Amino acid sequence: MKEQIAAIRTEAAGFDISTADALEQYRLRFLSKKGLVSELFEAFRSVSGEDKKLYGKEINLLKQEVEGRWTAQKEVLESGPAAIDNSFDATRPPQPLGLGSRHPLSLVRQEIIRFFEAQGFNISEGHEVVDDWHNFGALNFDEDHPARDMQDTFFVQTDPDILLRTHTSTVQVKEMQLGNLPIRTISPGRVYRNETVSARSHMQFHQVEGLYIAENVSFADLKQTLYLFATEFFGRDLKVRFRASYFPFTEPSAEMDVSCFICNQAGCSVCKQTGWVEILGCGMVDPQVLENCGIDSKRYSGYAFGMGIERMTMLKYQMKDIRLFFENDLRFLRQFSSEL
Ligand code: PHE
Asked: Which of 280, 277, 255, 278 is nearest to 264 (CA)?
């Protein structure tokens, strides 16, 4: 009987059950009423006394094994590819994909870029970690120039010469040094200033700065381009004014205001009751800056301007808190379309 059990065990373990047919053969051979395992139980009846205990256990174990293999394979076959194929409906509409939306800063950045590209400007980019000369020196900020205070600077480690750029004018310095004249470029990018984070200011923000250098560029060119830009961006009925201002790298310098498009100059909190909203700084590039960057200031002149993308976005969408841009709250982000 011992040999018989062993022989059945070996045969059952090696029996091919890879298909449904083969599995049925397996069942017939081992587990059916006339199968080998049943035969074994039949033979067991005539086993005497002592041997009964021993073989009883063995035969039950064998039965469990043979049955176990059958049940397991049956499950595999029933849940196999054939089953999946039958239930797969290729005509069913798919689950909708949750599409994201563009960040409002990206939307406005893109809108600004599109305008200036259409005016013939190309796009230039640069590093966020720069040396003092590109951020300040070349732009007429002497070592002890008070205007440096306006651009509270983050220094990289302890080296006072290496810093996080406080404006993207650094890219314009690079472009002027390259000297492929005429230059007509805009530089979008992230900038950093060591400011206390509040509803109105942040230690990181984005700018688009523009630079046009050629022969005979005048303040009239500057005004015309920026006037067109403002009316495209905020609407055609807008009034624009240029206020004299100061930047170390432009002479003359101005800030550009647009008539308040929220209250139509009746006075509101956005324009602080003045009827005017400041949107950017600009001016004619100081001849000394051209010379600093290796451009002949007797032959060439140019204008430059710079604006904050956050500010433009807040005005456009009437937002009151700059921190919203960086919190990535989905409820805020989902309000902006994914177009553009
Ligand atoms: N770079 C100036 C700033 O960040 C902006 C500016 C650019 C002003 C060009 C005038 C001309 O404050």
From this structure: 277
Q: Which residues contact 144 (CB under 8 A, 6 or more apart)?
A: none
pLDDT of residue 340: 45
Q: Is the CB of 282 under 6 A from ligand 1?
A: yes
Q: Choose one of 249, 253, 279, 286 to mutate for the ligand 1 pocket test, by most ligand atoms within 8 angstroms of C-beta.
A: 249
CB of 283 within 6 A of ligand 1: the answer is yes
> In this structure, are 51 and 148 located in the same domain?
no
CA distances from 152 to 51, 146, 245, 310 (A): 96, 11, 19, 18
Q: To the nearest whole percent, how much of the chain has pLDDT over 70?
A: 97
Are 72 and 112 found together in one domain?
no
Determine whether the shortest distance from the Cβ of 168 to ligand 1 is under 6 A.
Answer: no
Domain of 136, CATH number, reads 3.30.930.10
Rounded to the nearest 10 degrees, how much is the dihedral formed by the CA atoms of 176, 295, 119, 207?
Answer: 40
Q: Which of 25, 48, 83 is the last residue of a domain?
A: 83
- Residue 240: the pLDDT is 94
For 105-157, how does the pLDDT look when each residue is reduced to its tens digit (9 = 90+)?
A: 999 999 999 999 999 999 999 999 999 999 999 999 988 887 787 778 999 88
**Contact yes or no for 106/340 (Cβ under 8 A):** no
Q: How far is the CA of 33 from the centre of ligand 1 (A)?
A: 95
pLDDT of residue 157: 80
Same domain, 47 and 136: no
Q: Round to whole Å and give the CA distance between 141 and 67.
A: 88
Instruction: Please indicate, yes or no, whether residues 43 and 130 belong to a single structural domain of this protein.
Output: no
pLDDT at 339 over 60: no
Mutate which of 167, 173, 204, 256 to test ligand 1's pocket (most atoms within 8 Å of Cβ)? 167
Based on the domain organization, do 41 and 174 belong to the same domain?
no
247 lines ligand 1 (CB under 6 A): yes
Which band of pLDDT confidence, cut at 50, 70 and 90, is reported for residue 18?
A: confident
Which residue would you say has higher pLDDT here, 338 or 65? Answer: 65
Say if 120 falls within a structural domain: yes
Domain span holding position 12: 2-83
Ligand 1 atom index nearest CA of 306? 7
Domain-ending residue, one of 53, 83, 113? 83
